[in-house]
Each structure stands twice: as structure tokens, then as C-alpha cells.
Design brief:
This protein has 69 residues and is mainly alpha-helical. The chain has helices at residues 11-27, 34-62. 0% of the residues are buried.
Length: 69
Amino acid sequence: MENVKKWYLSKTVWGALIAISASLAKVGGVEVDAGMQTELLNSIMTLVSAGGGVLALIGRLSATKSLKA
């Protein structure tokens, strides 16, 4: 595989984690339907994307060397 991404950018990984969490929540008496799981996945992916942007900006602003075109 040449195209590699971080594990936390994978919708499959997040979908699996949400599905596992929903199953565990059901055992605890909390009902999480498929629609709610989809909403959670979309929200998490948005937060991860925003977090990546913030980290990139912080990295650029704290860099000690300038960029060259």
C-alpha cells in the first residue's frame, strides 16, 4: 500500500469503535440505533479533521525555519 493514512483518519476504524461502543452501551441499558451511530461517526470525523488542521497550524506557527517555494 502506497497510500497510507493514520488509523484515526479511517472511517472504518471509527465505525467499528462506535459499533462496539453501541453494543456495550446496549448491555448497560442504553439504546443506540443505527442513525445515532451514523451521526456519531460524522461528528467524530469532523472533530478529527478539525484537530488535524489545528495541529498543522500550530506546527507551522511554531516552526523555526521558513518555507521555500
